[in-house]
Amino acid sequence: MLAFLQRFANAFELGTCWSCGYSKVAAASLCPYCEEALPRWYPRCCQHLSDIEQHLVAEQKPCRYWYGALRWEPQVQQLITQFKFRYKAELAPLLANQLAAHLRLCYREEPLPDCVVAVPMTQQAWRKRGFHQTALLARHVSVALELPYIAGGLRKIRAVPMQHMASKALRWENSRGSQLALQDFSGCTVAVVDDVLSTGATMMAAADALYKKGARAVDAWAVVYNQHD
Ligand SMILES: [Zn+2]
């Protein structure tokens, strides 16, 4: 019934824009003005995150590429807050499409990775939130880019304290060894999807786990890159 009403609303453009509340847009989307005004990054904006030698321990290898689609500015903060903390899972396709469009630009001169995985969350956090936000994003991105999505490819084996409360050094310390890859990724290039990328500590925990299981290269993909953090 709900799906029917949604289709009906979409057909007649009876939804409201997620950002400004302007009516008459397709449901779960942005109006053309807000879509146009989204603060976007250029392709190589976060490549400097590879330069993290001081945080790496022996045998650690950084991600090959770091890509973030949107800037951490008020319009984007509002969308992410709705998505993550107000439990609006229906925002996943909107956010994932922004990332997919950015990635098409980033990889226009070379092949996309072989598969996509999501940054994992603990069972406890998952139950609390009611949905797995990075897995939802990763699924939508993999469909948009026609890549295989490896469900449950990474597992969180240790809870990490709220990262935005911790200092940078502590974030690296907390994240190290917190994730485990559950499959063999020998010879594969693997993309890891997260919602917000800041220091890169969480991504590096994912990359470590994937390199340990044979990944040839790991690429970091995030909907938002928070340059201020
Ligand atoms: Zn709008």
UniProtKB/TrEMBL annotation:
Belongs to the ComF/GntX family. This is Competence protein. Gene3D superfamilies: 3.40.50.2020. It comes from the Bacteria. It comes from Idiomarina loihiensis (strain ATCC BAA-735 / DSM 15497 / L2-TR). Signal peptide: none annotated. Residues 155-228 form the Phosphoribosyltransferase domain. PANTHER family: DNA UTILIZATION PROTEIN YHGH. Pfam families: Pribosyltran (PF00156). InterPro entries: ComF/GntX_DNA_util-trans, PRTase-like, PRTase_dom.
